[in-house]
């Protein structure tokens, strides 16, 4: 038998594999993502909001291949809006993706090509099928880091155009100590 090449700690999603890639996203790199720009300006731009570790067993752009990754979002808020990922669509629109929560609690915000936005609850063990053409963003609504694993096609690519402004059509904010999913353009 061949030795095991890659490991995932299924309790938290931590990965061990040769050639593991990683990136981090700081508050300063998330300009225009959070609604309260004034609150965003007052925060330290060097604060890390989330990190991603991923494995590319085939070259990026390979048709028919898959990538695997883990994302960790810190707890926190900009104004009353919880820390979240940029959010994106896949460049090749019909490429789907799986997300699986390992640690923490969150909301997976989804927006289809008809402009319908909804959210799925993320809790340890929750598994989410993100259909092709559906934009996806993860919001950490808890008081500890939120971690989820992801599997996506190696030729999917990322289109971040939807991430800014009112692109997702909704936001997740804290109200009286509770997370609330709010469609934009509606009154409080
Ligand atoms: C890739 C997959 C994740 C995200 C990561 C960060 O298709 O959906 O690995 O890249 O969660 O989010 P974002 O929106 O900054 O790419
Ligand atoms: Zn994706």
In short:
With 188 residues, the chain is mainly β. It has one helix at residues 37-42; strands at 7-8, 15-16, 21-26, 48-55, 66-73, 77-78, 81-82, 97-103, 106-111, 117-122, 127-130, 135-140, 146-153, 170-175, 178-183. The structure holds D-sorbitol-6-phosphate and zinc ion.
Question: What CATH architecture label applies?
Answer: Sandwich
Helix content: under 10%
Query: How is the main sheet built?
Result: 6 strands, antiparallel
Summarize model confidence as the mean pLDDT: 96
Output the radius of gyration: 16 Å
Q: What would you call the shape? A: globular
**What is bound: which ligands?**
D-sorbitol-6-phosphate, zinc ion
What series of H and E elements makes up the topology? EEEHEEEEEEEEEEEE
Question: How many strands?
Answer: 15
According to CATH, what is the topology? Jelly Rolls
Helix/strand-derived category reads: mainly beta
- The overall number of domains is 1
Tell me about this structure.
The protein is mostly beta strands and 188 residues long. The chain has one helix at 37-42, and strands at 7-8, 15-16, 21-26, 48-55, 66-73, 77-78, 81-82, 97-103, 106-111, 117-122, 127-130, 135-140, 146-153, 170-175, 178-183. The protein has one domain (7-183): Sandwich (Jelly Rolls), CATH 2.60.120.10. Helix content is 3%, strand content 42%. The protein has a six-stranded antiparallel sheet, with no helix packed on it. It has a three-stranded antiparallel sheet with strand order 10-9-12, with no helix packed on it. A hairpin with a 2-residue loop joins β6 and β7. It is globular and about 55 Å long. The mean pLDDT is 96. Bound molecules: D-sorbitol-6-phosphate and zinc ion. Zinc ion is lined by residues 88, 90, 97, 136, 152.
